[in-house]
């Protein structure tokens, strides 16, 4: 049971990375959005032409010119130290252009929470319990709606398990990207996880999804057949808490500005900021580095990664900071991308 409470505590702490401690449900949605993005400090809302755009800004799917499929794995067990037995996180995504109809795709995220051992009155009476699997499945669509303006939408089905309880929610992601004419600059805008809450047992234990608003830039400084280099940035505001609750109003210590309520969610101190760079040599080797600042999350901020591509096959790797818990370490992320 100690391990169960430890895991729940960890997810509450990691929840503060995205929207305030224990404030939102389904935090697994923010664990990973693709290995390439992770290597650049999770700055991907203005990047286009990659199937993992579906996780950051579905508008980025509109510029895909071939079919793409990816599968990725993250060793989140390393992040949780000794409390991580049987835990893993993975994602899959597929997208394809359909003549003049736009780009269609689908994504799947899964997080197995592992197992624990339960004891009753007799400590020798051990029983292994499966803590369950969280998952989110989405259908994606994107198209160019005007010259240089790309739009996309995801329709999501989200399932979360918490000990013996579970619930299913529905959500949508909406995104736009604009390629500024005459300038090698993309601007991205997206709202993610806008939908119903996760309700455990009754309405008094309902929590919103980790809804956020993303603004991004992608500046292509070099773009030749042998060398490509771009700098990318993202500014993410957590807009899950739109107004104060009655409980907040009755709490004299509650500070709407610090909690990021309503318009205060856009304040720099309440927002996540990232900066990344990516260099490709001859479309065969990619190198990435990023910086990711998360409110109320001390520790390391540097991410890094690389890609190796041969013909239509690409292997991605990234290493990102974990969270500060006993026995925890940095996280390794792996992915394979196929174009066909």
Write the SSE topology.
Blueprint lengths: L1 H18 L15 H5 L13 H4 L11 E7 L2 H4 L6 E11 L5 E11 L1 E5 L6 E5 L2 E14 L2 E14 L2 E15 L5 E11 L2 E2 L6 E2 L4 E12 L3 E12 L7 H5 L5 H4 L12 E10 L3 E9 L8 E9 L2 E8 L10 E9 L1
Antiparallel strand pairs: 1-2, 1-18, 2-3, 3-6, 4-5, 6-7, 7-8, 8-9, 9-12, 10-11, 12-13, 13-14, 14-15, 15-16, 16-17, 17-18
CATH class: Mainly Beta
Strand arrangement, major sheet = 1-2-3-6-7-8-9-12-13-14-15-16-17-18
Helices and strands: which structural class? mainly beta
CATH architecture: Beta Barrel
Q: What would the average pLDDT be, to the nearest integer?
A: 87
The ordered string of helix (H) and strand (E) elements is HHHEHEEEEEEEEEEEEHHEEEEE
Low-pLDDT ranges: 1-21
Largest sheet: 14 strands, antiparallel, barrel
Query: CATH superfamily, called what?
Result: monomeric porin ompg
Which short descriptors sum up this protein?
single chain, mainly beta, 340 residues, Porin, 6 helices, disordered N terminus
Describe this structure in words.
Helix content is 12%, strand content 49%. With 340 residues, the chain is mainly beta. The protein has a single domain (2-339), classed as Beta Barrel (Porin), CATH 2.40.160. The protein has a 14-stranded antiparallel barrel. A two-stranded antiparallel sheet has the order 4-5. A two-stranded antiparallel sheet has the order 10-11. Strand 2 and strand 3 (103-113) form a beta hairpin. The radius of gyration is 20 Å and the shape is globular. The N and C termini lie far apart (48 Å). Mean pLDDT is 87; it is low at 1-21.
